[in-house]
Amino acid sequence: MHGRPRKAYKPEEEAASAAKAVKLRSLQNQFMSNHHAKIYTKEAIDLSTKLLEINPEAYTAWNYRKLAVEDTLSREESNPDLVKSILDEELKVVESALRQNFKSYGAWHHRKWVLRKGHSSVGNELRLLDKFQTLDSRNFHAWNYRRFVVELTNRSKEDELKYTEDMISKDFSNYSAWHNRSVLLSSLLAKAEGFMPNEKIPDEYKLVHDAIFTDEDDQSGWFYHLWLLDQTVNVETPLLTSSWPSHGSCINLSGGAGCLKDSSSSKLTTLCSDLGSFPLILYFDQAVGGVSSSTVTVDSELRGNEDLVWEPVSNKNSQVSSVWVAHLKFMSSEPCFPKEYTVKVRIGNSPGIVSSRGCNFSTPYEFVFTAHVHDTVREDSQEVVVSWTDGFDIWDAQSKDLNFLVNLDQQMGLKWRQEAIEEEIELFRALSDSKIGKLTLARLLMAKAMISENGVKGVHYEEILELYNDLMVLDSSHYHYYKDEHSVASLHKVTSSTESLSRHLFRYRDMNNSVCLRLNNLSLSRIASVEKLLFVQMLDLSHNELHSTEGLEAMQLLSCLNLSHNRIRSFSALDSLRHLKQLRVLDVSHNNIGEHSVDTTRYLCSSPLSNSEWTEDEVGRQMTSLVTKYWDAYFVLRDLNLKQLDIAGNMIAGDEFYTLVPQVVPTLVWLNGHRVRS
Amino acid sequence: MTDLPPYPPLDPTTFDLIIVGTGVPSSILAAAASSSGSSSVLHLDPNPFYGSHFASLSLPDLTSFLNSNSLSPPPHPSNTHDFLLSVDLVNRSLYSVEISTFEPDILGQHSRTFSVDLCGPRAVFCADESINLMLKSGSNNYVELKSVDASFVGDSSGELRNVPDSRGAIFKDKGLTLLEKNQLMKFFKLVQTHLASSLTEHDETAVKVSEEDMESPFVEFLSKMRLPPKIKLYNSPSELLFLYQMSLQMIRLLILVCRIILYGIALLDHDQDNKETCGHVLKTKEGIDRLALYITSIGRFSNALGALMYPIYGQGELPQAFCRRAAVKGCIYVLRMPVTSLLLDKASVRLASGQEIFSQKLVLDQCVTVGLESLSPLTDQQKETIRVLVPNEISSKEKIARGICIIRGSVRADISNALVVYPPKSLFPEQLTAVRVLQLGNGLAVCPSDMHVLYFSTVCDNDDQGKAALLSAMSTLIREQVPENLQTDSIVENDTAVTKPVVLWRALYVQELVKGEFGGDISSTSSPDGNLNYNEIVESTVKLYEQLMGSGELFKEETSQENTAEEDDGDDVIED
Question: Which residues form a coiled coil (chain B) (predicted)?
Fold first, then answer.
């Protein structure tokens, strides 16, 4: 069935096929007229049989037969023998059609439809399938149908698992069989009756090793291995990865735009908010829904927080997200006295947090932090330009300081997972000559890093980075994928220990010694490890190769962001910044915004065609043509309360655009380093 | 044989070619020469059966053939030489024989149901040239082949390891480590790409094995293939441990995979690791050719599972099939007709019946030779004519020790027809050459249903060395009949000994190796060699045919006239 070259037709064959086409066309016309006239006589049905015998792909004919069957059934419901004979006839037609072409979607679907009626015996189906699967063991239609029949017949999953094993041992280049095996195992492992992952998954590794090591050029084994790796690293049930504030941490809070003069550097995070509230961030290892004041309880003396509103930090219309945020008020209608408040957060005490795959958050978790609320110091708001070049102090952070900031992951410290990965790494070092071997080794090493306890030695980030460097050279057609993975590994490396992270941490004097993370010049193309960076207030990502700000939305404390000298191609790529309510300073100078007339990321976010709300607001009415032209900039900037924006060095930058910006962002004070006249 | 009624005289008395002996090379020659259409051929054999030293016989016939060919030739009464100058021909002995019967009663009942090969162990690869010749000549119509179920590599412990000879077999093999699987498959692939690239000459990028490598010893090439993958050094103890484990694995690999490739698949005789004792160091080119033969054999015929096949009713069917083909094409056959003397002025013979037959060219069986005493009166030129018949002491240094055992039961309960190879040094440290064992069962119609025939062979320099190796292989696979009074005590024997099959009959014989030679008017054919298949014999036969007939291809016209066999169906050749 595979690898058969197509042969050119000989003239006589061509003539025969032309004659066949004429016949088929007249048959089709007759059939269509029957169909339109809703004629379901025996002759008409036989005509459709004939048509399907010649061309099993005639989908309309299958649907016509469905209508015909329904028609008869509605009249003859009381006669079970007749019903059965009609349906058996249908099965026979499908079978002969499949003989003609057993990759015909219509035929397989029709068969399913007939069987769902429930009047036919399913006993023959597996026998028929065995016949088809011997002819072409990889045919995915047959495998698909097999799953359907197995469900109907209640055949045990264990038997089916054995079947896949038999098929694989006949020919292990059978991706369909491997795939079916992964489907079966997923459900068997989820049931967890006699199928414990810590026993079964190592066995599966052994099986797939035989395939991969015997023929490393065959991809089916590698695919299955990747699935197994995923099963090893990821846990079905959602987990809380990190939070801000983290457990045991202290934060300084102050209202007003101007801020504390005396904030000592020993106090860690100082947050000044003119909104009188601070964000509480929960970061899960996968997208979850159902985070609310009933599933998360917050106990504190801070008043006015009885009904906290939890919002998913993701696309507007999605109700699942891995990042959830609530804003805790510390200056409600009544003024708070300067004082220390203890805040206790409990998650998962009552059920309701559910992953997008339907698994419950089942391990209750609790964390406590202290908030110092300071007097609001009213000063004349200094409108200073935030400079990324000076004003930074090296922060000689002690590891204990950072441990407060960087929340230790709540690890599923399961030994077998670590052992399994360790064994895989040892084995696959031997295959690291090939591209897929290198990639798998890199993935395994990365998996080891992910499930190791923080600070555990022996994670070879250097090796991972080198592997991806090799791959970028060896396999240039997948360069961007390797580049992204390289970036992820680099960021994991930076955040892997207090020592390495503190090398990038600074204090910015002019803004209450805000915590600044400088990750410039790392040739990053993708953002990762954000869960460990939730405390960061200033982020310098300049001189990298970023295409998008995806991932930054979780950094709710971020007030200054430097993205200059990157590869951002449009404002749509900055869409995630709209979630950053504290963001005041944004530098996107020297990017490629506006360079490409056709921006593919446009299709991913809402376009003006589907959204007419902009015509209703003030700016939209006043500057319709500009808004239409710069609609993507408009949609992003509109939601940002920026004071300072640097956008020079982009294609989009120009007088026309500059006239629009202050209209869309009324809070803006500095544009490209110049005070905006107001 | 002498009391048989005398033959009527042959008519005609002149032929283009006379062939004496019906072994495999002679039969191919007869079939090819007859099929060419331009030659009249007379094919003679002193024996009452086809096949000569390649025949399959019943047990009594086998015993008497071995014995009669092991005796020194009786001193021939010197004929008075008449005006046509002639020399007397004598049979030279090829064998030294030892036969032991352990259960004469049982064997007596069945003696005629056996069909035992003289030249065993012998099997053919599906892609062998002998199979090609059969298909080309149409002699495949007279013989059915069945596939040999399995092949094993054995050692002195009695353990039989499957030879993982295909992608699926490597995947399923439980004995190999992952790395061994990887290396073995890589090696197969290299051979396959090499094979593919040698078929399409112009694709220069595909050639993987360098010219230099092709001339190097195969065993060196194999060790080059197993170079450990590039490992980066890290200064942690776990890395060092890993490296250490890797090197241990490599050593294991050296022993196992190498053995499988060299002796289980390439089927070599000599110890390739030891250059001093090795009689023949295989070049990479030859090694790859052997692997290619193995690989192309697998799957050539849809109903043959493995690489090897065996003819139903025994190897003797093969020469007989060619002879039948030759007869169909007009070759004249006379069995039970010894040739007594050679007429020297032409390539003509005097038969035992006394009749003189004339021909241009004469091809004689390897065991026909000239009495040394009749050489002395000849002129130098006459000596040159019969050069190929004079026993050449130096050339036949190497011998083949063969053994046949009739056993009750099977060496592996689940498998009837199997090849077992004992690589050099696997049985005992002094074992210099590989011992091959072929077990065949009732499915091939060679023995009664509850028994198997086991063939053993090894190449050796002298009788004792060869017999020692064979006996050692026999003792690991089978056990001798325990006398009745001792049997009760043997209950405490360990499991493997109990499950070993019992030997009922055994023959051990050492066969001389005689190479065929082209000698102008008078030529000779080769004796059975030490290989498993007929490739070298067919090769020398094809060469001899070209020299005799001055034409290139055997059975050229056959293929153009009739389309003999569809390879993919293969139904003509092999029974299901």
Answer: none
Residue B150 has a CB neighbour count (10 Å cut-off) of 22
Q: Are A571 and A627 in contact (CB under 8 A)?
A: no
Q: What are phi and psi of B517, to 5 degrees?
A: -140, 150
Kindly indicate the confidence band of residue A99, based on its pLDDT and cuts at 50, 70 and 90. Answer: confident
User: 3-state DSSP call for residue B316?
Assistant: coil
Residue A366 contacts residue A344 (beta carbons within 8 Å): yes
Q: What is the CATH number of the domain that holds A637?
A: 3.80.10.10
pLDDT tens for each residue of B316-352: 999 999 999 999 999 999 998 888 888 876 778 888 8
Task: Identify whether A287 is part of a domain.
Answer: yes
Distance CA B54, CA A472 (A): 63
Kindly state whether residues A507 and A656 are assigned to the same domain.
yes
Rg (CA), chain A: 32
Let me know if residue A362 belongs to a domain: yes
Q: Which residues of B touch A430 (CB under 8 A)?
A: 178-179, 182, 229, 246
- Beta bridge partners of residue A586, listed in sequence order: A561, A645
Q: Say if CB A131 and CB A147 are below 8 A apart.
A: no
Cβ distance A458 to B185 less than 8 Å, yes or no, reads no
The CA distance from B143 to B319, in Å, is: 10
Count interface pairs A-B at CB distance under 8 A. 50
Inside any domain, residue A523: yes
Q: Do B229 and A211 lie within an 8 Å CB cutoff?
A: no
**What is the rounded distance in angstroms from the CA atom of residue A183 to the CA atom of residue A190?**
11
d(CA B273, CA B217): 10
Given A205, A233, A261, the domain boundary residue is: A233
Structural domains of chain B in order of their starting residue, each with its CATH number: 14-92+312-395+515-561 (3.50.50.60), 166-297 (no CATH)
Q: Nearest-CA residue of chain A relative to B173?
A: A210
Considering only CA atoms, which of B343, B485, B320, B473 is closest in space to residue B401?
B473
Residues 6+ apart with CB under 8 A from A6: none
pLDDT at B384 over 80: no
Residues in chain A closer than 8 A to B236 (CB atoms): 458
Task: Give the gap in angstroms from C-alpha A73 to the nearest C-alpha of chain B.
Answer: 49
Clarify whether residues A84 and A222 are in a common domain: yes
Asked if A361 and A469 sit in the same domain, the reply is: no
User: pLDDT band at A229, cuts 50/70/90?
Assistant: very high
Query: Are A552 and A421 contained in the same domain?
Result: no
Q: Which residue has the higher pLDDT, B308 or B189?
A: B308
B121 cis-preceded (ω within 30 degrees of 0): yes
* Interface touch B185/A170, C-beta < 8 Å: no
What's the total number of domains in chain A? 4
Domain that holds residue A545: 499-675
Q: Are both A377 and A429 inside the same structural domain?
A: no
Interface of B with A (CB under 8 A): 167-168, 170-172, 178-179, 181-182, 185, 189, 229-232, 234, 236, 238, 242, 246
**pTM (2 d.p.):** 0.75
Confirm if B469 and B401 have CB atoms less than 8 A apart: yes
DSSP class of B568: T
Domain-embedded: residue A549: yes
- C-alpha to C-alpha distance for A505 and B171, rounded to whole angstroms: 52
Distance CA A481, CA A468 (A): 9
Q: What percent of chain A has pLDDT over 90?
A: 27
- With contact defined as beta carbons under 8 Å apart, do A74 and A38 qualify? no
Provide the shortest C-alpha distance from residue B151 to chain A (in Å): 19
| pLDDT value at A628 more than 80 | no
The shortest C-alpha distance from A170 to chain B (Å) reads 7
Q: Are A69 and A214 in the same domain?
A: yes
Instruction: Give the rounded distance of the alpha carbon of B457 from its chain centre.
Output: 10
Q: Are residues A216 and A263 in the same domain?
A: no
